[in-house]
């Protein structure tokens, strides 16, 4: 009996240590670069609010909104430049921080955002990497609430097949992405709506979809960060503009 108790205690200790290690690892999120920090400042066209979410609200009354899920172990503020620029074009953008910086633990956090802005007539959701996968999951499970999907180096799983959905959608990916590879993107094509726009950023990589520095496992980009940002914003705008029509 004592041996059984010792084994049980040993297993429990291993589980606890593993859990603590995971929490520590997940909490070590990539921090925003200075470019991202600067985009958190309000200006004459966009009001930025930092609370439970990062909210970028244009001075005009928007009717279309965009909920964005960050990539794994990346601070939400790292995507502020994209959010700020989209808001400058007249769209409400809400970046949703995730528990332990992992969207898999907060896939339904968009619920509260949609409830907080009843005046928004059309919603798009999207995200980067794991955040994009969870955004696709949310779109699959809340088809009545979501009109658009914007994925950055991300794709749905087979259990979240969107092929039969009527969505304004885009898949934005990069040729030098070492994490969401071109093979991964091609394999996901049958899972996306037939009307999806596929945007390949030649020379871009995984990390340059946000502003948080280099990322382990990624490949070097052969275009500068600003150029990848420009193409990403334009592709996202194309979807949001469809929702306004």
Please give the structural blueprint.
Blueprint: H1 2-27, H2 34-38, E1 46-50, E2 54-58, E3 64-69, H3 80-88, E4 92-95, H4 110-116, E5 122-128, H5 130-141, E6 148-152, E7 168-174, H6 182-188, E8 197-201, H7 225-244
Helix pairs in contact: 3-7
Q: Pick out the low-confidence regions.
A: 4-27
State the strand order across the main sheet. Answer: 1-2-4-3-5-6-7-8
Rounded radius of gyration (Å) = 19 Å
Helices and strands: which structural class?
Answer: alpha/beta
Q: How much strand content do the residues show? A: 15-25%
Q: Tell me roughly what share of residues is in helical segments.
A: 25-40%
Task: Name the shape in a single word.
Answer: globular
The ordered string of helix (H) and strand (E) elements is: HHEEEHEHEHEEHEH
State the separation between the terminal residues, measured CA to CA.
Answer: 71 Å
Largest sheet: 8 strands, mixed
Strand runs, count: 8
Task: Provide a descriptive summary of the structure in words.
By secondary structure, the protein is an alpha/beta fold. The longest helix has 26 residues, at 2-27. 35% of the residues lie in helices and 18% in strands. Helix 3 crosses helix 7 (225-244). A hairpin with a 3-residue loop joins strand 1 and strand 2 (54-58). It has an 8-stranded mixed sheet, with helices on both faces. The chain has helices at residues 2-27, 34-38, 80-88, 110-116, 130-141, 182-188, 225-244, and strands at residues 46-50, 54-58, 64-69, 92-95, 122-128, 148-152, 168-174, 197-201.
């Amino acid at each position: 009996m004592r041996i059984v108790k010792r084994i049980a205690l040993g297993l429990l200790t291993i589980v606890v240590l593993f859990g603590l290690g995971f929490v520590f690892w997940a909490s070590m999120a990539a921090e925003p670069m200075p470019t991202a920090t600067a985009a958190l400042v309000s200006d004459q066209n966009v009001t930025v609010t930092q609370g439970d979410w990062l909210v970028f609200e244009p001075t005009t009354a928007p009717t279309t909104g965009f909920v964005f899920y960050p990539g794994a172990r990346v601070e939400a503020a790292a995507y502020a430049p994209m959010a700020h620029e989209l808001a400058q074009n007249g769209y409400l953008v809400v970046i949703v921080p995730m528990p332990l910086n992992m969207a898999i633990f907060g896939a339904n956090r968009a619920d509260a955002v949609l409830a907080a802005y009843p005046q928004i007539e059309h919603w798009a959701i999207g995200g980067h990497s794991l955040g994009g996968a969870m955004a696709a999951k949310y779109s699959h499970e809340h088809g009545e609430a979501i009109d658009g999907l914007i994925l950055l180096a991300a794709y749905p799983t087979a259990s979240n097949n969107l092929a039969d959905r009527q969505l304004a959608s885009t898949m934005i990916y990069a040729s030098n992405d070492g994490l969401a590879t071109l093979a991964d993107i091609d394999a996901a094509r049958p899972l996306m709506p037939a009307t999806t726009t596929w945007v390949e950023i030649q020379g871009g990589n995984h990390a340059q979809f946000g502003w948080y520095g280099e990322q382990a496992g990624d490949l070097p980009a052969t275009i500068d960060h600003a150029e990848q940002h420009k193409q990403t914003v334009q592709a996202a705008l194309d979807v949001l503009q469809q929702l306004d029509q």
